[in-house]
Amino acid sequence: MKLLLLLSLIGFCWAQYDPHTQYGRTAIVHLFEWRWADIAKECERYLAPNGFGGVQISPPNENSVINNPSRPWWERYQPVSYKICTRSGNEGEFQDMVTRCNNVGVRIYVDAVINHMCGSGNPAGTSSTCGSYYNPNNRDFPSVPYSGWDFNDGKCQTNNGEIQNYNDAAQVRDCRLSGLLDLALGKDYVRTTIANYMNHLIDIGVAGFRLDASKHMWPGDIKAVLDKLNNLNTKWFSEGSRPFIYQEVIDLGGEAISSSEYFGNGRVTEFKYGAKLGTVMRKWNGEKMAYLKNWGEGWGFMPSDRALVFVDNHDNQRGHGAGGASILTFWDARLYKMAVGFMLAHPYGFTRVMSSYSWPRYFENGKDINDWVGPPNDNGVTKEVTINADTTCGNGWICEHRWRQIRNMVAFRNVVQSQPFANWWDNGSNQVAFGRGNKGFIVFNNDDWSLSSTLQTGLPAGTYCDVISGDKINGDCTGIKIYVSNDGTAYFSISNSAEDPFIAIHVESKL
Ligand code: QV4
Ligand code: CA
Question: pTM for this one?
Answer without folding.
Answer: 0.97
